[in-house]
Amino acid sequence: MTKKLLFVCLGNICRSPAAENIMNHLIEQEGLGDHFICDSAGTGGWHVGALPDRRMRAAAKERGLDFVGSARQFEAMDLREFDLILAMDKDNYRNILALDPQRKFTDKVKMMCDYCETHTDKEVPDPYYGGADGFNYVIDLLFDACGGLLKSLKSH
Ligand code: 4NP
Question: Residues 6 or more apart from 77 whose CB is under 8 A from it?
Answer without folding.
Answer: none
